[in-house]
Write the structure tokens for this entry.
Amino acid sequence: MDISGKSIVVTGGASGIGAALARQAAEAGGKVCIADLNIDAANALAQEIGGMAVACDVTYEAQIIAGIQNAEEAHGPVDIFVSNAGLGRGDPSHAASASDADWTLNWNVHVMAHVWAARALLPAMIERGSGHFVNVASAAGLLNQIGDAAYSATKHAAVSFAESLLITHGNDGIGVSVVCPQYVATPLLGLGDGDAQGNLLTAGDVAKSVWQGVADGTFVIMPHPDVAKYNALRGADPARWIKGMQMLRAKAMSEYGGISVQNFYKLI
């Protein structure tokens, strides 16, 4: 899909990968709506790129619907919806130690937000015979994020839901892309573009892969090439894969005394 002239909504669009997606979409001629909890940052970016901003907490279906309605009033029917908002809290201790509240938060942000957006948009998209969902998951949705079971489980569910969307509605003219990046130099890691090197990409690198994938009609977008290799290994030899992940976890515990996303990326 050519994004020039298209009405595009990006959730979590005020920073990190979301902001890079919004900037590049605007540069390509898209009409961009930035939906974010941080409305001040969203407004600032909207002014910078000539887009619009809406306050949106994606854990509430009503706020997603309201954001879509505001975007459509300004830019016309939404052509591309990017479900980018995400979070990661980590396991306090064992794999089931996160609270029910944290599990529910992960579920709502990483899965239900995608479902609610699709529920709101699909009827009109099907009637028009066009539209595209970009659901940002994670390499953890294909592999695993050691030390964050809630994140990993819900990102797997995000990949599965995206697949269901495409199986069910691909023949209705609906495009679906699920984005599965590994580690990215964003504020989530306390990093910026200048810190990117090797397998640590910038948010702009990921955004470029995403928009190229949308243009090409790619379903699984893997900005880090190694992810495809790891995914193939996981499928071909699950026992070997688990053993390798156990060894990686042990290395993180030995070198850093625990598991945190701010350190773990250095081992990949």
About this structure: DSSP finds nine helices and nine strands in the chain. The chain has a mean pLDDT of 93. The chain has one domain: 7-225. The first strand starts at residue 7 and ends at 11.
